[in-house]
Q: What sequence folds into this?
């Protein structure tokens, strides 16, 4: 009988060929965090599934996000007259993100402890990381007092670009490469530090002049060549430098892997194109009616817009990692972009054909379309996750949120008894 699931049979057969490979060159990870993570995983009973640990970490980030929505639903910063969350909230954000990082790091260790390691964990871990990326962009932008600004949008682009690069690199090299400064380690710790500082000083601290705060303004040569920036702006510039570094190192790793396999080293560059295309679509929508007078950017719709964008991105990179573990072709196109394409074209009809927008003719109608896009994107991504998880668990005979496998008779049993042995 022909399969009716999400994954074709050849893709499912390739799941059994998958094996995780990773390289972590971070000194912080090696000498500080790894000993802590090795101890932390021992606190979890072996009957707790690794994906349950991953989901617990993501839940902490969702709680952090919920507190932002509760205390600052309009996403206004202090310089715009908002009171914002109380300072103690930022400490909870720091704790939640640090715990997320820790739980995300030990899920693989728990998988090996319980005999549940495999492609399902790779997919689930990657999907949760993708969702966390946009949530932390929004939270960090609030902590840095960036609010409704193009800096917030720029941080979204840079953060998603780093994630896309890592996924693209893993697809072509067959291994996850974390350099001396990586998003999952030093990047997260940097954001934790931002939350802690904001908890003590308040978001207004980050509006201080960078050169004056660091006392670099006493050097004439620096004043001549370095522009005056706030601490938050300087933090964004640093993020741009890190992105440039990661672009170079990611392609270098891909280049080496392709040359070693006697494959063309330049073809993978074409597979970077889908990301800037998706970014261009979002920016085109966001820039209506103009960059300075953006309807969405200058309203409370920025947060649901970024969440919609983040879900579309999560679907995009999840399909790439799925193609990696099932040895399928790289996904160029993502159907979720249709919502943003419709939104971008409709919002810019006055610019394109000198006609008024058909859907987003005023702010309430724009809000309705943004929230409908968010809902449809959420349900589409949830459906994707359900179908993929169902296909993989049924084919490999391994449960997602419990430590169970199918025995030879096809019944679900505890892992220790799957082969007829007492646990």
A:
């Amino acid at each position: 009988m022909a399969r009716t699931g999400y994954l074709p049979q050849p893709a499912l057969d390739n799941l059994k060929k998958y094996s995780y490979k990773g390289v972590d060159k971070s000194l912080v990870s090696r000498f500080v965090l790894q000993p802590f993570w090795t101890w932390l995983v021992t606190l979890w009973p072996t009957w707790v599934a690794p994906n349950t640990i991953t989901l617990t970490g993501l839940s902490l980030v969702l709680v952090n996000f919920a507190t932002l929505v509760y205390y600052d639903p309009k996403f206004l910063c202090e310089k715009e007259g908002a009171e914002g969350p109380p300072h103690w909230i930022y400490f909870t954000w720091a704790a939640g993100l640090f715990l997320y990082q820790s739980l995300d790091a030990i899920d693989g260790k728990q998988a090996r402890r319980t005999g549940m390691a495999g492609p399902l964990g790779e997919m689930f871990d990657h999907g949760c990381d993708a969702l966390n990326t946009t949530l932390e962009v929004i939270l960090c932008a609030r902590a840095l007092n960036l609010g409704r600004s193009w800096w917030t949008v720029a941080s979204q682009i840079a953060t998603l670009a780093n994630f896309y690069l890592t996924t693209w690199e893993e697809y072509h090299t067959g291994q996850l490469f974390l350099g001396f400064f990586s998003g999952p380690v030093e990047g997260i710790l940097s954001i934790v530090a931002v939350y802690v500082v904001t908890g003590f000083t308040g978001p207004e601290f980050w509006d201080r002049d960078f050169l004056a705060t660091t006392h670099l303004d006493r050097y004439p040569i620096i004043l001549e060549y370095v522009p005056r920036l706030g601490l938050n702006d300087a933090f964004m510039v640093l993020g741009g430098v890190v992105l440039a570094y990661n672009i170079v190192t990611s392609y270098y790793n891909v280049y080496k892997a392709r040359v070693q396999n006697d494959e063309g080293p330049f073809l993978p560059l074409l597979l970077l194109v889908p990301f800037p295309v998706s970014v261009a679509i979002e920016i085109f929508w966001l820039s209506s009616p103009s960059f300075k007078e953006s309807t969405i950017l200058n309203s409370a719709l920025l947060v649901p817009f970024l969440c919609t964008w983040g879900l579309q991105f999560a679907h995009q990179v999840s399909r790439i990692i799925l193609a990696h573990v099932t040895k399928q072709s790289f996904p160029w196109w993502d159907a979720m972009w249709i919502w943003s394409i419709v939104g971008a074209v409709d919002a810019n009809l006055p610019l394109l054909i000198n006609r008024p927008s058909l859907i987003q003719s005023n702010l309430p109608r724009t809000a309705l379309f943004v929230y409908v896009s968010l809902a449809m994107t959420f349900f589409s991504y949830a459906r994707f996750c359900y179908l993929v998880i169902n296909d993989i668990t049924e084919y490999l005979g391994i449960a997602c949120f419990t430590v169970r496998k199918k025995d030879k008779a096809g019944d679900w049993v505890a892992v220790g008894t799957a082969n007829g042995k007492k646990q």
Residues 47 and 232 are 44 Å apart (CA to CA). The beta strands are 22-24, 176-178, 404-406, 412-414. Confidence is low (pLDDT under 50) at residues 419-423. The longest strand covers residues 22-24.
